[in-house]
Amino acid sequence: MKIISFNVNGIRAISKKNFFEDMDKVNADVICLQETKASVDQVKETLEEQMPNYSIYANQAVKKGYSGTAILTKVEPISVTYDMGIDEHDQEGRITCVELADFYVLSIYVPNSKNDLSRLDYRQKWDADLLAYIKELEKKKSVVACGDFNVAHRDIDLARPKANYNKSAGYTQKEIDGLDNFTQNGLLDSFRFLHPDEVKYSWWSYRGGARDRNVGWRIDYLLISESLQSKMKSAFILNDVLGSDHCPLGIEI
């Protein structure tokens, strides 16, 4: 089974580019999308005709055109749920979860701490509550948690670590600690596990030709339950897929 995660930075915008051709080439069984910036109806309207082999499940923010997640799956899920069940976290459509035979797949869009770090305290609470939510799911079966986690984990995961450490959202020690809590509590960073020394990014600023110069950050992850480690065949980041400020990443299980 091939599972892909992609922050599309607006599903309606990317659908006017090469999105359908790119997804056709990737040929994934499950596609997790983040930052759809659309209502559930708009997501379905945009995708259904072009992607008839997939069932589409989407979650939307209360605020129009903001945040949002979705999962497209060729495998009919046993159940589908949305959000964490915590009111303060459940206003922005940040989690879509499908239950498959052997594991849960989550599409997750973690809140950004904001440039002035004004949302960092809230972000810490989100991280802790998300980990608790995933650990509850793991009591039933394994988990594949896909998405934009809005943090670079180590120096290898961003082009300019010293310039950004404890100054920029996405590379403060509090955010790093948050991701450490995931990887120290039974969740594997699939790409880094299989590629311990490979420098590869998943997001680039639109400013200053950052993508052309590969001045990027790896802030998108597929975290998997340790119980799936022996079943993981590959983990990859598709830098050549354009259309968003992020690129897709994936695993084969």
The profile of the biggest β sheet is: 6 strands, mixed
CATH architectural group: 4-Layer Sandwich
Q: How many distinct folded domains? A: 1
Shape: globular
Radius of gyration: 17 Å
Helix amount, in percent? 10-25%
Please identify which CATH superfamily we are dealing with: Endonuclease/exonuclease/phosphatase
Please mark out the parts with pLDDT under 50 across 5 or more consecutive residues, or reply none: none
* Number of strand elements: 14
Structure description:
By secondary structure, this protein is α+β, with helices and mostly antiparallel strands. It has one domain: Endonuclease/exonuclease/phosphatase (Deoxyribonuclease I, Chain A), CATH 3.60.10.10. The chain has seven helices and 14 strands. The protein has a six-stranded mixed sheet. A six-stranded mixed sheet has the order 5-6-7-8-12-9. Helix 4 (120-138) packs parallel to helix 6. The chain is globular, with a radius of gyration of 17 Å. The protein starts with a strand and ends with a strand.
Give a brief description.
This protein has 253 residues and is an alpha+beta fold. Helix content is 23%, strand content 26%.
Descriptors:
single chain, 253 residues, alpha+beta, Deoxyribonuclease I, Chain A, six-stranded mixed β-sheet
Helices, strands, pairings?
Layout: E1 2-7, H1 11-14, H2 19-26, E2 30-34, H3 40-47, E3 55-59, E4 69-73, E5 79-82, E6 95-99, E7 103-109, H4 120-138, E8 142-148, H5 161-164, H6 173-183, E9 187-189, H7 190-194, E10 203-204, E11 216-217, E12 220-225, E13 234-237, E14 249-252
Parallel strand pairs: 1-2, 7-8
Antiparallel strand pairs: 1-14, 2-4, 3-4, 5-6, 6-7, 8-12, 9-12, 10-11, 13-14
Helix pairs in contact: 4-6
